[in-house]
Fold:
Amino acid sequence: MNILVINGPNLNLLGTRETKIYGHESLDEIMTWLENSIEGLNHNFKFYQSNSEGDLINIMQDERQWAKGILINAGALSHYSYAIADTITSIKVPAIEIHLSNTDNREEFRKKSVLKDVCIKTIKGLGKHSYLEGLKYLENI
Structure:
């Protein structure tokens, strides 16, 4: 299966930002781990990270024919980006919303997700394993 993995703002700083929340591994290390996991070996991946909402939208639109599933960790954009939500709806590729931390146990603004209703599932609070659980879910739909 072709899997598009989208990572939003500030995820390029993983490993150095708020390590008590997000851990010490970089985004590249987590993506390499996912790709080389037993489950990951059966799939083709394209990994993208951007701090720009428009770039994330363009990537999803550009890759919609290739991708059979999307794992999206939109970071803070998950809480207010109706444009990303509209894109997920428009491209008709099954998407899983991913969060490393449990957003329900964090700041009030993180408890609301505008992506929740347009994604087929939300997985949060499992650290890097949130990506793996999202991949497993995509395998079974």
About this structure: The longest strand covers residues 2-7. The two ends are 12 Å apart (CA to CA). Helices lie at 19-22, 27-36, 53-62, 82-91, 129-139. The CA atoms of residues 94 and 141 lie 9 Å apart.
